[in-house]
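ARCHIVE CARD
Drawer: 12
Card no.: 0347
Subject: one protein chain, sequence and derived structure
Cross-reference: see card 0346
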Amino acid sequence: MSKHKNARKQKEVRSLVEAGRFYQLDEAIELLKKCHTVKFDQSVDIALRLGVEPKHADQMVRGAVVLPHGTGKTLRVLVLAKGDKVAEAREAGADYVGGDDLVEKIKGGWLEFDKVCATPDMMGAVGKIGRILGPRGMMPNPRTGTVTFEVAKAVEALKGGKIDFRVEKAGILHAPIGRISFDSDKLAENLRTLMEQVLRLKPASAKGTYLRSATLSGTMTPGVRLDTNSLVRGLN
């Protein structure tokens, strides 16, 4: 497709989204599907603006949730463990399992994985690669269930659609909820499952409106703003 035709197509797609309108969830999902004009299966993501100040530790919103229909992406899971936990991780379907050998390999620049789990007795070694894993959102953390001796459970959760999320500096939380090829009801159920967890984690010190805005978008689509009141009501 020429640049001119592509620009025209993008303009047509943007015109489908009414400026200033807040959509019901089912309307927003159907609209995203109409905006899908590329050949690849786009990721569908939600951006939530929360009424928190992440610079204050008591207002950090961070957690994990297993999406009932997964994300549509096959994750490569690495487990850092010792002893009998190595065999347990392999049997559970981990893609890579090891200890100090893999820590050294990561130090050397190897990053062919998407998620990392570690047993507590490996965290001393994991700390040596924190500067590599941390900025990429891969650092194991007890709060997200990725620092645990229950490695089989952790691997199965990640392979089954578990996602980690955390609010960023501006109070925005981004998370994937599936692929644009998913049935509309599956995308909606994934989003509601995420929303229930985010609302459950509302900090006691947060003042005013907690969920300030919600925008749904595909990798190559315009953002569609959601009616937050109806979104929250739909969880009850």
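Annotation on reverse: The beta strands are 43-50, 62-66, 77-80, 96-98, 115-118, 162-166, 172-179, 211-218, 224-225. The longest strand covers residues 43-50.
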